[in-house]
Specification:
Elements (H helix, E strand, L loop, with lengths): L1 H76 L3 H29 L7 E4 H19 L2 E3 L3 H4 L2 E4 L1 H18 L6 E9 L2 E8 L6 H4 L17 H11 L3 E5 L5 E8 L2
Parallel strand pairs: 2-4
Antiparallel strand pairs: 1-3, 4-5, 5-7, 6-7
């Protein structure tokens, strides 16, 4: 009797361990998928917040294209063909800009982030500003960007992921900075094999009671926020072999993307 009970207990133990192992394997298999779905949801939520401002970013070149076209028609009638050609070149350039803006939206919202590739931080900054430039202008924010030499620093990462993190940081800085006269600064510093891209604002800064939990999911000081942007951004940076940190300042806040140089 005791031997049978022992065998049953051993069999139950082995069955339980196998069940736990299968569950762990299933969790490991699903974790990357869930992580990508969460990052995608964050990209779409962020894009939703900034899409309204893009209407003006597109309306401006459209209005200018109409003016250049009307002037071009009059120049042709006046036999001033060289000047008319100049107008049409400007129209082509403005159409290219609209295409660039809409392509940036599509790339930012796509599910696939693409393979890591060598990319300059200037490209990441330019792409982020295509989405946010109009909001910055409307709020009267002074934006300081790194010089061309610093911005030429290259990293190896999926473009969309780096841009997602930077858009999140810039969006947070925009919401924190004072309207009309507020300041945001983007800086880049190379330290051997490590590159640091920082976004600073002159807003009220991060409350002391939030600093220890700042990168935890669902921690936010915004009434309309859900508190996932920083958590997802840090997760992205750590996947890329870097990190995302908050640095204390006397005034405002500074968040720094740390990443290995290409």
């Amino acid at each position: 009797g005791l031997g049978v009970l022992g065998l049953l207990a051993a069999a139950a133990f082995v069955w339980q361990r196998r069940r736990e192992a299968r569950a762990a394997a299933q969790l490991d298999a699903h974790t990357p998928v869930l992580r990508e779905q969460l990052q995608q949801a964050n990209r779409l939520a962020t894009l939703g917040q900034i899409t309204a401002g893009l209407g003006h970013e597109i309306r401006q070149p459209l209005a200018a294209m109409r003016v250049y076209a009307e002037n071009g028609e009059r120049l042709i009638e006046a036999q001033r063909h060289a000047e008319a050609a100049g107008n049409f070149d400007k129209i082509a350039g403005l159409a290219g800009r609209i295409g660039q803006i809409t392509e940036e939206q599509l790339q930012f919202s796509r599910r696939s982030v693409g393979e890591p590739k060598q990319i300059s931080l200037a490209e990441v900054i330019d792409g982020s500003l295509l989405l946010l430039r109009d909001q910055i202008r409307q709020k009267g924010i002074s934006l300081t960007l790194p010089g061309a030499e610093a911005a030429s620093a290259a990293v190896c990462a999926p473009h969309v992921q780096l841009e997602q993190v930077l858009v999140n940081l810039l969006q947070n800085a925009l919401q924190a900075a004072e309207t009309d006269g507020g300041q945001i600064e983007v800086t880049i510093a190379a330290d051997g094999p490590i590159i640091r891209l920082s976004v600073s604002d002159d807003g009220p800064g991060v409350s002391a009671h939030l600093r220890d939990e700042l990168f935890q999911p669902f921690v936010t000081s915004k009434a309309e926020g859900i508190g996932l942007g920083l958590a997802i951004s840090r997760d992205i940076m750590r996947q890329l072999g870097g990190d995302l940190i908050h640095e204390d300042m006397e005034q405002g806040a500074r968040f720094t993307m740390i990443m290995p140089a290409a």
